[in-house]
Write a structure and sequence with these properties.
alpha+beta, 6-stranded mixed sheet, 10 helices
């Protein structure tokens, strides 16, 4: 059983324990109308509920060593807070409640007044049994609150409130359920005071819980219209940077090579009705096509892109996914610019300093904007590398439930001369993982996230799993029979590469990189592109193993050397109930908070940071640090045995722990977020801030900046 499954089992046990303790408390109370009368059948049910609660509670404790073995952060608050919160009341309930219920069940309707007199007072009689059950139930519910509300980094004041509420439930139960003792001993007047005290305590508990909720709600609303606080110091090294010495993100433009060729493009964002090859029509937000126009450059050139917004009311930006541009060009609304609203424009300009396969998309209201079509392909070629004869881009996307490969929800046909070197660039532009299957040839994974793999081996009979935002470049020699590329999320779509002379097939070159296709490939949408492709083998995506990149290729040089880390950071990905922009959500959190309330990771230029990322949810989270690549050190404690794995999007599946190395060599204020953009919109975002860098832009404000 893996860690994600253990966490799921722990959740089920926690809910079961809380429910069983509550049922046991209620049945223990109602099974006896008075000290001398009992309902044996109900007492038996109370015993059964108590047994279930004890077993579920003990089973949770039995899971703790296995959870802690995966990482301390899987068990941190469960051991330090939840264990004493639930174990002490459960032990009390076992010692006081079980003997009492056994006596009630066995003696029937009559019980001797002296029964249990030999036991210590806290363990004697109906009152002790009921209060013990109530305490166990309150502790179990408090454990659930710790899991769903407080999380792995609870503030001291939240713990105080939690303990107060748990203890208050027990005191309130004592006051409300056992008032007769106070009346008989102290008299009716004191009994009335007891009722008043119980009401006051209940009111105080309600106000405390409500006040904590209002405080949290106000915190989530206060972020709107506020700017990013400049980082002026981190850890203990060095002196804080004076505020007067800060550099605005707008000044971080990078260096332009002298006399470089400038590649100029213009993109216009618009709302339009799009008819796909299947004949289905849908409203889309596009840069003029789906995907947007392919932008290309060569190393050493300058890329200049003018972005116009015709009528996308939410606003747009251009973010260069995986490309380590200067911070001013990163295209994140509220961090590096304001959103480009209808009728406005912005120019992006940067040097093409890294080769490979990348993509661009809006980073304003991106969860909706990218899903609706505001994305495109960006490819940079290295003149020093051997060029492929045929270069085909396959961008997988889900457009409102319509699975697409490239620009088609049906088959896309290409013709390539046998023996030609083919490069297929797979890009996951969706928010969910995609699995690709290549049939008809062996191939190599030549590059991952734009970085060349060292000595890649031949692959056959393996699926390729791409997390959201990820890219694989595949290469193979074109055989004398067709090669088909399929994706599990696009059942009706396929890319079919047929052998033959390019002139044998007419049609627009759609989905192929324009600078790479001369004399080797033709195709795109063939005359039969609107028909369904031949279906693959049923169940093949469920039965074919996935290629594990940690063991692929051979050890050797990568984009980044392996320097010694001089500091460490921990990022815990989880789910808790939070307010996001004032709306209550079961949010996706980073270190217990939802953006924009997540504390930033502060770095200084030159820092080498070891980052440990723990996924405590059952869902994958492809974490994407802008402006930087990271070197993978380990996954679940196992170091890569193949080629150095350098990524810009780290796909962390449920229950996994990844260690990566980040070199702080690109000053700015950078987003680091889950590239399941719905998760980002629900809180799973944070900032990485360099010391001394400031931003004039705000979250919300006149431009309605919403990067997620």
């Amino acid at each position: 059983m893996n860690t994600s499954q253990l966490l799921a089992v722990d959740l089920v046990l926690a809910v079961l324990a809380a429910g069983a303790w509550a049922a046991a408390a209620w049945m223990t109370w109602t099974s006896t109308a008075s000290e001398g009368h009992a309902k044996p059948s109900l007492a038996g049910l109370a015993l059964l509920a108590t047994a279930v609660a004890l077993v579920a509670t003990a089973a949770r404790y039995a899971l703790l060593p296995a959870l802690a073995a995966g990482s301390w952060w899987f068990a941190s608050e469960r051991i330090s807070i939840s264990l004493p919160l639930t174990a002490i009341p459960a032990a009390w309930a076992a010692m006081a409640g079980v003997p009492f219920l056994l006596r009630r069940r066995n003696t029937g309707a009559h019980l001797s007044p002296n029964d249990g007199a030999q036991m210590p007072a806290p363990l004697r009689g109906r009152k002790a049994a009921v209060l013990a059950m109530v305490a166990a139930g309150a502790g179990a519910v408090g454990s659930l609150a710790l899991m769903f509300v407080l999380g792995p980094f609870p503030a001291l004041w939240t713990l105080v409130i939690l303990i107060f509420l748990v203890a208050g439930v027990v005191v309130l139960a004592k006051m409300a359920l056992f008032p007769r003792h106070a009346v008989s001993v102290l008299g009716p007047t004191r009994g009335g005071r007891r009722a008043t005290a119980a009401t006051a305590l209940a009111g105080l508990m309600a106000c405390t819980a409500l006040g904590a909720g209002v405080f949290t709600w106000l915190g989530s609303r206060a972020a709107d219209g506020t700017g990013i606080i400049t980082a002026v110091g981190h850890h203990d090294a060095g002196s804080p940077v004076p505020v007067s010495a800060t550099t605005p993100v707008t000044a971080l433009l990078g260096d332009m090579p002298a006399n470089a060729t400038v590649r100029r493009y213009e993109l216009t964002a618009r709302v339009e009705q799009v008819t796909l090859p299947s004949g289905r029509t849908t409203e889309a937000w596009t840069f003029g096509s789906l995907p947007g126009p392919t932008l290309e450059a060569r190393l050493g050139e300058v890329v200049e892109v003018v972005l116009n917004n015709r009528d996308v009311q939410a606003g747009v930006t251009l973010h260069w996914h995986g490309y380590d541009v200067p911070n001013a060009m990163d295209g994140v609304a509220s961090a590096t610019q304001d959103a480009v609203l209808p009728g406005q424009s912005m120019t992006y300009r940067f040097a093409a300093a890294q080769a490979g396969t990348y993509w661009y998309h809006t980073h304003q209201d991106s969860a909706e904007g990218v899903r609706k079509g505001l994305y495109g392909v960006f490819v940079v070629h290295d003149p020093a590398m051997v060029r492929s004869d045929a270069d085909i881009v396959v961008a997988g996307h889900d457009l409102g439930g319509l699975g697409m490969l490239g620009s088609s929800d049906r088959s896309s046909m290409y013709t390539v001369k046998p023996g030609s070197l083919v490069r297929v660039r797979l890009i996951n532009t969706d928010s969910l993982p995609q699995r690709y299957l290549v049939q008809g040839t062996v191939f190599t994974v030549a590059a991952v996230d734009g970085t060349e793999v060292n000595k890649p081996g031949e692959v056959s009979g393996k699926l390729l799993r791409l997390g959201a935002g990820g890219r694989y470049d595949l290469t193979f020699a074109m055989p004398g029979s067709p090669v088909t590329v399929r994706m599990d999320a696009a059942a009706d779509a396929a890319v079919i590469i047929n052998p033959g002379s390019p002139g044998e097939m007419s049609g627009e070159v759609s989905g192929a990189v324009s600078g790479e296709v001369s004399g080797a490939v033709s195709g795109g949408n063939s005359p039969s592109a609107g028909s369904n492709p031949e279906k693959g083998t049923p169940g093949i995506f469920a039965t074919t193993p996935v290629l594990d990149l940690l063991g692929y290729g051979e050890p050797g040089p990568g984009r980044v050397d392996t320097p010694t880390a001089d500091r460490e950071e921990v990022i815990v990905l989880d789910r808790q109930f939070r307010f996001v922009d004032g709306v209550p959500r079961y949010a996706f959190t980073v270190n217990g908070a939802a953006y924009p309330l997540v504390p930033s990771m502060q770095v200084a230029e030159g820092d080498v940071v070891k980052v440990t990322i723990i996924n405590r949810t059952a869902e994958p989270h492809p974490m994407h640090p802008h402006g930087h690549h990271v070197l993978v050190l380990s996954r679940n404690g196992v170091a890569p045995s193949g080629s150095p794995l350098v990524l810009d999007t780290v796909d962390i599946q449920g229950g996994e722990v990844w260690e990566v190395l980040l070199v702080a060599n690109n000053p700015g204020i950078w987003m680091d977020h889950c590239h399941n953009l719905d998760h980002a919109a629900e809180g799973m975002m944070m900032l990485m801030q360099y010391e001394g860098v400031s931003s004039p832009f705000v979250h919300g404000g006149h431009a309605h900046n919403r990067p997620e």
